[in-house]
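name: query_chain
kind: protein
chains: 1
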Amino acid sequence: MTDLKPKDFASSLDVRWCPGCGDYAVLKSLHKILADTGAKLEDTLCVSGIGCSSRLPYYMATYGFHTIHGRAPAIASGAKLANPDLDVWVFTGDGDGLSIGGNHLLHALRRNLDMQIVLFNNQIYGLTKGQYSPTSQKGVRTPSSPGGTIEAPLNPARFAIGAGAKFIARSVDTQAKVLGPILEAAKAFEGTAFVEVLQNCVIFNDGVFDRLKDKKQGPDNTLLVEHGKPMVFGVNRDKGLRAKPGGFGLEVVTLEEGGLSEDDLLVHDESNHALAVALAELGENEGEPTVLGILFREAGVEFGAASRIGLPENKLSMEEKLSRLSATLRASETWDVGEDAA
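structure:
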């Protein structure tokens, strides 16, 4: 088969998201990285739950499975364990993945099965007409919170860290130069890769991430971290992060003030768990940048490989599988129930 182009990963269906929806940008980035990495249509599976983001499998020419609300990680896990050769992608939203599907997402992350979970976070329920979601900012007014929400929002990256995820990253939907490499790194990671995409809902929560996406002011409000590099950001690259005096917490500083230089800044270490926690929480207070990039990456035992220890290395034929299944069902440990049972 000749090398596939991005357009080869697109299905023949018309994409039916609202004009201007951030989902279009994510879909385009996915098509490109699959082509760039030499992915095959027959070896790729896209699984989703319920929500606007969960329509994505329809727009892929690969295998796809549109499952039930919140259960995409469970279905994807079964598919990956049944066929380890599949490249499995899960697409979910802040409502689908963190509300009804929170328990499934938690256990998928802690198990570390080799698949990618991409969570579209628009901080609202878009498909069901704008109710507040687990990630909605406190005080936001919606049809389900006309007086303003009273709940503190859930931080998806922080949730993933708490669940024990080994790969955690964050990007913005329309920043292809950031999102593309993250998706490619997630695909290459041997374990569960969790990617949060800050995505704009033009109908029910438009502009919620404008301060991060604005070409003029965005660089002052976002910090793109890279492993082994100092944490510098800002329109003029004159801001940075350093450890607070005493070593507890992070603080934003301005370079050249008080004689500060890049040598005084923190250097990103993807394997530093405590640092990942602090980075995930940045941006929640005024004056702090929202951190993008790979926050945490650490090699770990992959669940699928561990689960196959002790099993035959050679793949069984369908006839052999059916024979073993039949033998199991007829083994002495089974018993009959009912009126005619002996």
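note: Residues 23-36 form the longest helix (14 residues).
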